[in-house]
Design brief:
The complex is a heterodimer of chains A (358) and B (323).
Chain A: E1 2-7, H1 26-51, H2 65-72, E2 80-82, H3 88-94, H4 98-106, H5 139-152, E3 159-164, H6 171-183, E4 187-193, E5 196-197, E6 200-201, E7 222-226, H7 230-245, E8 251-256, H8 275-282, H9 286-297, H10 302-324, H11 344-354
Chain B: E1 3-5, H1 6-20, E2 24-28, H2 44-48, E3 53-55, H3 60-72, E4 76-80, H4 91-98, H5 101-104, E5 114-119, H6 133-137, E6 143-145, H7 150-162, E7 167-172, E8 179-181, E9 195-198, E10 203-207, H8 210-224, E11 229-233, E12 236-238, H9 243-252, E13 255-262, H10 267-278, E14 288-292, H11 301-304, H12 311-322
Parallel strand pairs in B: 2-3, 2-4, 4-5, 5-7, 6-7, 10-11, 10-13, 13-14
Antiparallel strand pairs in B: 1-8, 6-12, 9-11
Classes of the chains: A alpha/beta (358), B alpha/beta (323).
């Protein structure tokens, strides 16, 4: 809990460190693999869709699947999710339908957010999934406020918010951590330290020895975990959520991982990092590591792995083809939801625009 | 009707709404034990306790950010920013989050949040004497109220707290001690409805907040000369209700906007443009504007005294418009 030593669960011999074992059943262990595989397939398709001009933008999470899926697997009904734009895995694992998620990329009639936001900004009131507004780390104070509301009502639920290493440099990070510490809100801060904020290395974000160690200054636990070890992430996030739900207050978790792909489809990482560096991390690919672990356990073989990948690709392909045929967002919806009820000036602007006399 | 201060009217609104709805809570700097820098929340901490009247650490971005989170989570927070000058520290939370969340998230999530904050001045210098209402009135998704009387402040604040929309509720530090008639018992006033505070046939003065009283004072003086001004109090700056001003201009054919803010890109520019477009045929003269001298507000008392429109300046401008 000093925020410096790294917690791991999967041992090279295929066993799990008993101290860090999340205790998943064989079925759950395979389900985790399935979600990670689906996420990878989604990212490959998302980038291809943007490259071919079918969607405007995409933010992949390739290399960070263990963080989102490991954490998402420990969320319960009632918990609140305030993810960053790179954490679709959290939403998918929590139960956000793949079809709705893909529809958001297209911003058409099937998009639950009505074509209002750029891709990777998913929102679903039913599962308490709150979209980011984009500026980095501004969702952190929200996760504190919502958690305060839950605490005030005596509900045993937690709020989790995720962000990157770059997010820890913001004022909102500091202020949110400070508020959470002072008010002991049931908030879990999951920082996915993927080494880069677009092109800037984490060593240019902070001179601190770790990100987790910053928790000490706020009087809350800080935990550093191997972010490419899905079972370790599942364990520490699960413990932090349980602590929060039982009134034990907030936790900062730093999951050390690596963004294997670009920041977004607008980025070219070859400009600022070497192929050797990427190759080094690729050896620790969280899905490959986890698959090797499952194989040693006898839960997975090459054939089943291939099947999982094929199924994931097919699920994504189907979701894309369903979403793509959805009609455009109705134009009159442009003026809706600005306010709870449409003020007169907006009704006038709508009527003017739609009649061609605007 | 009893005479009470603007401050007490606001406190009564807060207290009544907190009794009426236990989801209402107050958070901000110094709002709890101390009772607020301008004593608006005095005694509420004792009455409702520290879980509902919350002294926060000094971080405006987190006050508004946490209030947005609390609103999304089912509460009805009233966040106090000690002065409107400090809203700059919370601008992203207000502009990119509070104002847009309902729209961006496809109407799925509401942010029933009130941000209370005073404008004003009084030998506080350049960074503590500003009026940013036009910045907020610029934003789709926000409601911006700026009441000038105790009656309006109470009635509008109660409506703001019950609103499903985020409301920027801008008070005025120099009005807190102002007394006015406030109805006894329960009442609310609608947001987005302007009000005629004085009838007249010669010139329409459109104004709001503290400048309402400067305009009314000038109108009183001018009446002695036989010049009758109609004074329109906007009360809410977004959505902007131009109806009473439009009706008034049909009668007076002249309009003057008086604001305490800098005039460039201010509320007066918007109002003048609208009257010019929609009441052009009724106007006998260009719409005039009167506002703050366009320099940062100085500390020195003699210089500060030159900064803002006063009754004499308003009266002079009206006479000039009629000459």
């Amino acid at each position: 809990m000093n925020g410096l030593s790294m917690i791991a669960a999967m041992l090279p011999d295929g066993t799990v460190d008993p101290a860090n074992d999340p205790g998943l059943s064989d079925g759950d262990l395979l389900a985790v693999h399935g979600k990670m595989t689906l996420l990878r397939a989604l990212d490959e398709k998302g980038i291809a869709l943007q490259r071919s001009g079918r969607i405007g933008f995409y933010v992949p999470s390739t290399g960070q699947e263990a963080c989102a899926v490991g954490a998402g697997f420990r969320l319960r009904e009632g918990d609140w999710l305030f993810p960053s734009y790179r954490d679709h895995g959290l939403a998918l694992t929590r139960g956000y339908p793949l079809s709705t998620l893909v529809a958001q990329l297209f911003g058409n009639r099937s998009d639950a957010t009505r074509g209002r936001q750029m891709p990777n900004h998913w929102c679903d009131r039913n599962i308490h999934l709150v979209s980011v507004s984009s500026p980095v780390a501004t969702q952190l104070p929200h996760a504190v406020g919502t958690a305060y509301a839950s605490k005030l009502r005596g509900e045993p639920v937690a709020a989790i918010t995720t962000f990157g290493d770059g997010g820890t440099s913001t004022g909102d990070f500091h202020a949110a951590m400070n508020f959470a510490g002072v008010f002991r809100t049931p908030t879990v801060f999951l920082c996915e330290n993927n080494q880069y904020a677009i092109s800037v290395h984490v060593t240019r974000q902070t001179a601190s020895k770790s990100l987790a160690v910053k928790a000490q200054a706020y009087g809350i636990p800080g935990i550093r975990v191997d972010g490419n070890d899905v079972l370790a992430v599942c364990k520490v996030v699960g413990d932090a959520l349980a602590l929060a739900r039982s009134g034990g207050g907030p936790t900062l978790i730093e999951a050390v991982t690596y963004r294997m792909g670009p920041h977004s489809t607008s980025d070219d990482p070859t400009v600022y990092r070497s192929e050797e560096e990427v190759e080094q991390w690729r050896k620790g690919d969280p899905i490959r590591r986890y698959a090797a672990f499952l194989k040693k356990r006898g839960l997975l073989d090459d054939e089943a792995e291939d099947t999982a990948q094929a199924e994931a690709k097919e699920a994504v392909r189907q979701a894309v083809s369903d979403a793509e045929i959805s009609p455009p967002v109705p134009v009159e919806s442009l003026f809706e939801d600005v306010y709870e009820e449409m003020p007169r000036h907006l009704a006038e602007q709508r009527d003017g625009l739609l009649s061609g006399k605007g | 009707m009893p005479l009470i201060t603007y401050r007490d009217a606001i406190r009564d609104a807060l207290r009544e709404e907190m009794i009426r709805d236990d989801r209402v809570l107050i958070l901000g700097e110094e709002v709890g034990v101390w009772g607020g820098t301008y004593a608006v929340t005095r005694n509420l901490h004792e009455e409702f306790g520290g879980k509902r009247v919350i002294d926060t650490p000094i971080a405006e971005a987190a006050i508004i950010g946490a209030a947005i989170g609390a609103a999304m989570g089912g509460l009805r927070p009233v966040a106090e920013l000690m002065t409107i000058n400090f809203s700059l520290e919370a601008m992203d939370q207000i502009v990119n989050n509070a104002a847009k969340i309902h729209y961006m998230f496809g109407g799925q999530i509401k942010v029933p949040l009130v941000i209370r904050t005073p404008a004003g001045w009084g030998q506080l210098g350049a960074t503590h004497s500003q009026s940013f209402e036009a910045w907020f009135a610029h934003l789709p998704g926000l409601i911006v109220a700026m009441p000038g009387t105790p009656r309006d402040a109470k009635g509008l604040l109660k409506t703001a707290i019950r609103s499903e929309n985020p409301v920027m509720f801008i008070e005025h530090a120099r009005l807190y001690g102002l007394k006015g008639e406030v109805p006894e018992g329960e009442y609310t006033l609608p947001l987005g409805v302007s009000d005629i505070k004085r009838g007249g046939r010669d010139v329409t003065i459109v104004t709001y907040s503290r400048m309402l009283h400067v305009a009314l004072g000038a109108a009183e003086e001018l009446a002695k000369e036989g010049i009758e001004c109609e004074v329109v109090d906007l009360r809410t700056l977004r959505p902007l209700d131009m109806g009473p001003a439009y009706e008034s201009v049909k009668k007076t054919h002249r309009a003057l906007v008086v604001e305490e803010d800098w005039t460039t890109c201010g509320m007066g520019a918007e109002i003048a443009a609208r009257i010019g477009r929609d009441r052009f045929d009724h106007l006998d003269a260009p719409v005039e504007r009167l506002g703050q001298v366009e320099v940062p507000v100085p500390y020195a008392k003699n210089l500060e005294a030159l900064m803002f429109p006063d009754e004499r300046m308003v009266a002079d401008r009206v006479r000039k418009m009629l000459s």
